[in-house]
Amino acid sequence: MIKVLIVEDSKVVQEFLVHVLTSDPSIQVVGVADNGEEALEAVKQKHPDVITMDIHMPKVDGFEATRSIMETVPTPIVIVTGSLIAKELASSFRAMEAGALAVVLRPPGIGHPEHETAAGELIRTVKLMSEIKVVKRHPAVKRRVPPPTVKMEVRQATAEIQAIVIGASTGGPLVLQQIISGLPRDLPVPVLMVQHIAAGFTKGFVEWLSSTSHFPVHVASHGEYPLPGHGYVAPDGFHLGIGNGPRIVLSDSAPENGLRPSVAYLFRSVAQTLGPRAAGVLLTGMGRDGAAELKEMKDRGAITIVQDEESSIIFGMPGEAVALNAHTYILSPDKITTLLGTLAEIQSNSKTKLE
Questions:
Q1: Is 239 labeled as catalytic in the residue annotation?
Q2: Could you tell me if 164 and 340 are in contact, meaning their C-beta atoms sit under 8 angstroms apart?
Q3: Which residue out of 34, 262, 289, 311 is catalytically annotated?
Q4: Which structural domain range is residue 331 located in?
Q5: Which of 20, 34, 47, 349 to pair with 281, CA 20 to 30 A apart?
Q6: Are residues 214 and 344 located together in one domain of the fold?
């Protein structure tokens, strides 16, 4: 049995979540807490396998509760929100900085046409997160940003890079935030990203990513020219790719690996359009989305980077890429940032010499 603690200040919502979660025979709700203060005590007493956490609560909110739990009794935490307002979602993503593993939408009421789908997504997420081994977070530790003097040897001769593309799934939001936070502000190329995330969350994710990294990030639009030093995230329900120009391409073609957007579509389009003039990064996540297409990028001369197993929440996608020998490098997030910064510097220097 998977033991779940529900943290939610509304009694009605508590009862509803108990009903949804216990509809799966492998899930047992071992307790409920009305606020973050009660949650911390309940975790110590009940020892749940996973916690569902609301954000807006009296006394101690979900962000502070997540931080406290991860500093004292680390436990997998899933943020469950009833709001799809971008600013509200941005506060939910802040909890991921404190150690939460995922953010999901609270299912609508029974009888709603989306109830079964959303309830299934919540149950799947809770079951998956219960298997993750989390570690204690140390309080007041600043995020380590690679010093600008650190360089990494580029082992592969490259053409002039025109784009960096990144794919991520479970555990990806915080890693993406860490990576783009460390990129130089004058990055001479755009960054295109596919993050597997539930529909409705993209705008909030982009707002959080942009505000916390101080790197301008946008929801991608079809036909626009991606600007250097800007990030672009695939919108809900559309594959993200790149075409001649280079211009952003959005497609509502069939899902790949059961996903739309998929990392596979992005990496394949970049391999075919830019060839060696790109760098591809595959981050933490379950499944194999993007692994074969990263290999295609490598075969066409691109720099390809895979997140290492030690730092990955789930080594599924990166592991599949390693098995295919799709990587030029296997690196931790801080070293990924350093390498991308080195590539950018090489690019800038080459342009200066040409001028």
A1: no
A2: yes
A3: 289
A4: 163-354
A5: 349
A6: yes
Rounded Cα distance, 102 and 79, in Å: 6
pLDDT tens profile 98-127: 889 999 999 999 999 999 999 999 999 999
Q: Is 252 a catalytic residue?
A: no
| 112 secondary structure, DSSP code | S
Residue-wise burial string across 192-217, b where 16 or more C-beta atoms lie within 10 A, e elsewhere: bbbbbbbeebbbbbbbbbbebbebeb
From the candidates 68, 130, 169, 210, which is the catalytic residue?
A: 169
Same domain, 239 and 113: no
Asked whether residue 155 is domain-assigned, the answer is no
Q: Residue 49 catalytic?
A: no
Q: What is the pTM of this model?
A: 0.89
Quote the tokens at residue 146.
């690679």
Give me the catalytic one of 54, 68, 130, 196: 196
Percent of all residues in the chain with a pLDDT value above 90, rounded to a whole number: 73
* Residue-level length of the chain: 355
In this prediction, residue 89 has a pLDDT band, given cuts at 50, 70 and 90, of confident
- 109 and 115 Cβ atoms separated by less than 8 Å: yes
